[in-house]
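Internal ticket #5521
Category: modeling
Description: The requester needs a full-assembly model to guide mutagenesis choices. All entity lines are attached below as received. Residue total reported by intake: 552.
Assigned to: D.W.
Attached entities:
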Amino acid sequence: MDNNVVIQCENICFSYPNGVQAIQNVSLTISQGDYIAFVGQNGSGKTTLVKHFNGLLKPTRGKVLVFGEETTNKKVSYLSRKVGYVFQNPDDMLFCTSVIEEIAYGPRMLGMDPEEVKKKVENIIIELGLDEYRETHPFALSLGDRQRLAVACALSLDPQVFVFDEPTTGQDYFGSKSIMSLIDQLHQKGKTIVIITHDMPIVAEHAKRVVVMNKGQVALEGTPEEVFTQIDKLQSLSLKAPQVTMLARELGTQEKTILHIPEMVDWLTQTYLPAIKPAGGEIS
Amino acid sequence: MMNVDLKARSSPLRVLDGRTKLIALAVIFVLVLLFSHPAYIIGLLAFVMIVWVVAKLPFQMLKDLMSYFLVIAIIILVVQIFFYPGTTNLIKISKPLPAIGFSGFITLEGIVFGIAMVLRLVVIMIVAPLMVMTTPLPELMLALVKLKVPYRFAFIMTTALSLLPSIQNRASIIQQAQLCRGISYDSGGNFINKLKASVSLMIPLILGAFRDSQTLEVAMNSRAFGAPTRRTFLLDSHFSTVDIIIIALSLLALIGGIALRIQGFGTY
């Protein structure tokens, strides 16, 4: 097997105890350093699928390999050192009386050396900008900071892969900017990132690979360029490419998929500026 | 964790008036507490099981209930056997221990009373689903109100019931979130660690329930809960002939039971 593969799903199926078949025959490989976004309607199986990546759910058929190890007989507490998972609602994760306690809890439960835990907590607190809140009660923090703290808790177990379930839901523009730039930082440090989101501009701006889920299956997969070019196919899956991509398409950029506003500005200036520039004159 | 399921299934019990079911339920409660002879309680248990079959409730649920109850049943049995002041000594197992009120003998009366206690609890436990799993919550509320239970009290009862599935759902999400933080709830780790792990589940769960109840309060106020007028109901219910027969039989059973008990039957 390729050394770079971190998570491999081989023909996995999953049914809930009530009989709902949430995942049907999905095969997927995630490599080290990937930045993957899972998109799709509610109920399409995104969350169910990513919960297989750290053993929270075990496939009813097929197998999931995390760093080459099959998850079936592995405990989540063991796998959480390899794959960190940040839940959509940070309030489901937090229960300690101070930010420092909260971050230290996981490593302590796993029996890490107290001195080492201390050092680790200090590093994380500085890294995530939670320094001023070290003694604050987690529930006194703003939603954005609680989410940072939830990330800190996952980070404290030193996983190589991070899964984020809808990290920007319920946040204002700056809140979601801030959490996404935190995720980008983790990616730049070589971590593998998996996010679930409904926000297509975020996918276009941050992800390197997109997986579109529909009815428990992978409906589309590729780079954001490849996926967002297929506007009609997306529409049939009740999804929309970012507005800037659709606008660019209307304006006639067939040969190139535009994903961000700066790209659009570049394209517009290159295409139309020469035409409106008076000969020899300058635009002021 | 067993899932609470409040979906009212279609069955002969589903069509009965909520009041009928409440009255029958109350009668069974009284009867089961009235008698202390295991044979009488077994009779009631057999009757309730027949109703379970008629109501088409899943047997798996019965099994689940019993498996949860097993430990409690054993504790009750042991406590009764040791501490019930019986007179027919069967086996001597130790010297008398006056400090804890134990005579040193296992007595026949102790065993019988222990068995009766366990059977009583079994009946009470399996009667409750017969009510809540065959009656949609709005009908249950209406039945309570028609039986002159104050509306606020009826509301609290049905709301608490209706929140159970969502609280359970939330508990399982929180548990998953904590597993992801390296906490394990199963074996491994000593008692203190297990206790700590349960704190990680209880705190988010309770805080979440507080938050939800605050939201509920706002939602209720904004929908005129407690307005000083006489409330009307969307649903209405009427007794059918079957309802009247069942209520009559229930009351007859109640009177019969009390009469038997006064005559001195039904005790060991």
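Resolution: model delivered.
Comment from assignee: The two ends of chain A are 59 Å apart (CA to CA).
Ticket closed.
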